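Table S5 (text form). Sequence records supplied for joint modeling of the four-component complex.
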Amino acid sequence: MSDSNGKYTTIHYQQYLELDKILKAQNLRSLQLDEEAHEEMLFIIVHQVYELWFKQIIHELESVIEFFEDKEIIESSLGVAISRLNRVETILKLMVEQIGVMETMTPLDFLDFRNYLFPASGFQSFQFRAVECLLGLPNEQRLTYHGHKYSSVFPEEQQKALDKIYEKGTLLDIVNAWLERTPFLKLDGFDFLEMYRKALDKMLENENKAILASEYLTEKEKEMRLKMVGSSDTYFQSILDRDKHDELVKEGKKRLSYEATIAALFINLYRDEPILHLPFRFMTALIDIDNQMTTWRYRHAQMVLRMIGNKIGTGGSSGHEYLASTAMKHQIYTDFHNISTLLIPRSELPALPKNIKEQLSFHFTAE
Amino acid sequence: MSDSNGKYTTIHYQQYLELDKILKAQNLRSLQLDEEAHEEMLFIIVHQVYELWFKQIIHELESVIEFFEDKEIIESSLGVAISRLNRVETILKLMVEQIGVMETMTPLDFLDFRNYLFPASGFQSFQFRAVECLLGLPNEQRLTYHGHKYSSVFPEEQQKALDKIYEKGTLLDIVNAWLERTPFLKLDGFDFLEMYRKALDKMLENENKAILASEYLTEKEKEMRLKMVGSSDTYFQSILDRDKHDELVKEGKKRLSYEATIAALFINLYRDEPILHLPFRFMTALIDIDNQMTTWRYRHAQMVLRMIGNKIGTGGSSGHEYLASTAMKHQIYTDFHNISTLLIPRSELPALPKNIKEQLSFHFTAE
Amino acid sequence: MSDSNGKYTTIHYQQYLELDKILKAQNLRSLQLDEEAHEEMLFIIVHQVYELWFKQIIHELESVIEFFEDKEIIESSLGVAISRLNRVETILKLMVEQIGVMETMTPLDFLDFRNYLFPASGFQSFQFRAVECLLGLPNEQRLTYHGHKYSSVFPEEQQKALDKIYEKGTLLDIVNAWLERTPFLKLDGFDFLEMYRKALDKMLENENKAILASEYLTEKEKEMRLKMVGSSDTYFQSILDRDKHDELVKEGKKRLSYEATIAALFINLYRDEPILHLPFRFMTALIDIDNQMTTWRYRHAQMVLRMIGNKIGTGGSSGHEYLASTAMKHQIYTDFHNISTLLIPRSELPALPKNIKEQLSFHFTAE
Amino acid sequence: MSDSNGKYTTIHYQQYLELDKILKAQNLRSLQLDEEAHEEMLFIIVHQVYELWFKQIIHELESVIEFFEDKEIIESSLGVAISRLNRVETILKLMVEQIGVMETMTPLDFLDFRNYLFPASGFQSFQFRAVECLLGLPNEQRLTYHGHKYSSVFPEEQQKALDKIYEKGTLLDIVNAWLERTPFLKLDGFDFLEMYRKALDKMLENENKAILASEYLTEKEKEMRLKMVGSSDTYFQSILDRDKHDELVKEGKKRLSYEATIAALFINLYRDEPILHLPFRFMTALIDIDNQMTTWRYRHAQMVLRMIGNKIGTGGSSGHEYLASTAMKHQIYTDFHNISTLLIPRSELPALPKNIKEQLSFHFTAE
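The corresponding structure-token record, covering 1468 residues in total, follows.
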């Protein structure tokens, strides 16, 4: 088709997907340098598929970050933002499954062409690093690899591109700022923090009572458990103490600001209020992505262990141990995970004052 | 623990889960009647797990239906209702995967104890039928099995229980009623249907133009395609024609009422409006459940084919063919699936009048 | 690295994977012709990933077919062949999961760029057709699409390439020939077919007795069931009747030859014998692939229904119905699935004569 | 049905599965003690399903261990043993997926009934411990939990049952013994270890040459890499040194004996030989199970983090950290994973002498 503005040209599947490029980009090193190693095709294609998914994930994350730039528009875009984050999670799940495809290659198969890859390595994937940066993995939190900065393997231009992501604001930064803007924490004589503090005290008191009254526990066990509730108490105090919080932020042990943390807690506790439901889902989507990312890291570490044992990787990494520890330590949204430790049961949750409740509601069904 | 109101008694994992009952309920017929067939344990456990999931699904579906009974309360419960339907979908996905566990049993393994099961059969699962009923599978749509009513294998009491689900109102009934209550279709001089009709005409006109202008298609192909757009047009007319719609309902070809269909269309088209976002997700959750149910039916049919080929099942069913056709014909939310055929591109979608738009919005971020 | 024979050149991840090609092959039509439709990126990448997996599947299937060309070498390659088929299954499973990624795009999102794709269509995927041909989907069994031959959308060269697959021999052809070569069916006074026939008669007799003796069934039900066993009997006769079998082959209702079918049955019944274990796993792998292919077809049909309802696809297909019926009718290894109907319980399976049993064994543990 | 030996009694689905027990074993504590917490049903059912799967896994593992008891019979049972281990893997995969079902419960939902569970805890699952023991998790390797022995939460009788598993021989013990019996390592003038040693030296020499000749690496990088090859060399020496090996076994750093390790290496290197193919698959199945177990542990730890953050679990565990570290440290078949580090490329693998090769072959296709 074609009309005045050129909109209606036609296109064929083959051209549209540029299959000439895509399907001719598998050049086996083994074939070039020696004899074809059957499994090298799989190795190449698996990595190319990963890179395609990385591109898609970057496309989604950038679009979500963009939504937050225009502070006016974010509410009406929250639904779309959640859908896109859910899509990222779905893709990550598929990427976790895909490790099973790679695992159909045995270590012996890999040895047939492993030497030819030197020194190519997954550490050289620019897009993977971009995904980490966009999500907000802090540079200081990164485990180093043979003492080099993670980005040192990239050309200068790409290093700058990665730095720019941090400058512009990662998803975590932007979510933090958005949470800080929550308007409901102190309104019309309603003080969320004070209310929460009281409910908390009551809950811990009840837990203590329960332990003391238990017929099942020995005295020693009771003692141990009471100590635990005590340390729970200490923990709770830290969240109510702005100075302590700020200190932890400085030490890199927390990422969300004090205000953002309180807002996140408020949303979690009252997420059944219609207006808080999408914000709650948004935070859940971030946790889900974080979980899938670390699961992928974990499964990837397993796969590397299986494939090369403790030998060095082609890129010179110390392999399995390094990767396995990133699974544990490169979690990004830990502060959101830890909100759970601050929750109190609905039954102990004070009802919101009527005027606040009305501000948080809307009605789909008119009467 | 124990206090005045008895709340704080203690409990052990083993008792809490009633493992004495659960783990002693695997009595192999092969062992009782002859020699243990190793795979009978798997057969029993797989089915028991399915029944446990059915119980959970029923628990969720009933709770969602209950939400809708109180018309006042539904908006604030919509988020929770969606979460529970999403949970049902997650369980159904697991149930689909579980077929892979059953498939680790080979046909020859099954033969080792198949004779002892006679005439037990999956057709005798009361809970599975209850799930079908709660979702809204209409009795008339059911394929019969050797000419008997599906519920004839159950004792009278259970037959009554199934009938009662229909009397009380299935999820589909209740969703239909809820959609009919949508307050936004005709408000303050805004007439959704009229607006939609105009946009539709423009869109079809554009499609016709595109076909005629194509350099790629032969004259014959153009003709064919124009005819298709024509029949598309005819199809669109049917939705705008209340009488035609009601006729299709009478013939059992549609399930949603005319009003409910228009409301569903409206929500789909304007789901980016904050207040319509949860209703949109709710409908999507129903489609997702429907898809997982039919996927399960399909995979189950595959498994039966693999296990017993075309031989009769232990319950006397004609097996694979019957099951495979239920996958295609026991879809329940077909009307929601078909909403897609009524959509028009966002670019051709008229903007909502300002007063309507404000009614559909709420603001999380205060200024 | 580099040595005399050029083996040790170095390579970088980026070049090795040709990411310049791969990551620059996403040219959004919406962006070219109008305004970027956010979801078009997903649409392109999902399809490109599919094409990459198709390439991998073709790579594996061709290599397996090649193994069978050298009749001498096949035994020692059977293990490798099974691994590669299992890999194909794993990839297909991932491809089924991947439909969930596509489904994160809603019908309304799709409408934002659907018009620009005209007349590109998945029907134009050459590699998908190549996979079908390599597996052995017979041309006569194919459902036609608007009356055209499936390959008519391809340039002549590609049509020839598809024809050539059939000429050279599909996986099914080659498996059939391999089964016909099974050396164990009639050896040293051992006649498998005769032995099987006797065991069968005994088994059916027992089933009849069981039905007659049942206290649970009504007379009418017994009658019905006896009739079923009768038709089971008739069915069994057909496999023992070479002429009937050949007739069904001629009518396209069976694909395996008489000899191959008997061999497949033998392997299934005595697959616990060490030498028959890998052949059994090989056949199982083919069934698994067949199942995943049809599951993919089914899920794909579901996705199309969800995305465009009953409207015509961009390639002019009648959409959902066509695709859903290929799920049911484009099954290829139906004859293997149906072997289940011919099995008899191990308890009724005659022990192999000692001399045969020794020929089928080998010992890993020396004494 | 019923005949003289009672074989043909009939049975109904409901009775066969003992659904009266199974479906009445969900007694919500919240309902008993206070008000029904909707999500407690999910919590109970998810755990009951896990226990059912544990029972199935135990059923399979015990049967495999039994195969190995009769040393004569194991070869002909190897195929069946592999199938059963593959089934265990499939079930474990499902169990990993099932965590996603639990995650549909939010932390706030859990708080609604968490207090009533005290002090029930997953640590009290006897069957889970039995699975760990059967697989061969050594008691010394277990991380302790609040300083108590893992089994101290069980009644004495169950503690004894767990001890007995170790006494009788775990799967790992039995596999070790089986590998030690491998008859092929030193036969007819063929000395596997000597042959392997030579091939190894040649391979490491080549790697060194490749590094030195590289144009890509800086001098410093070359130095680093040469050092790595050196430590690789040192590593290889350890496997060839029986004394060093035995020392590592004593320190609990290795589990397989020297002989078993060499046998496992031999099978891995020559697994394309028909007779070694099933033994290779058997070892692969063990690695797969190990991977799924640790993946489940990892995902379980993630779920606990999400659900209760760093708060203590109801059983008094320190929660997430403890569980996450078991994922890393409770791997059982590490020695098999590490075989990969000992492999050498097929191209450098010496061909087996003709007489050995013949002993390893069998022919399915007669000439």
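Note: Chain A has 17 helices and two strands.
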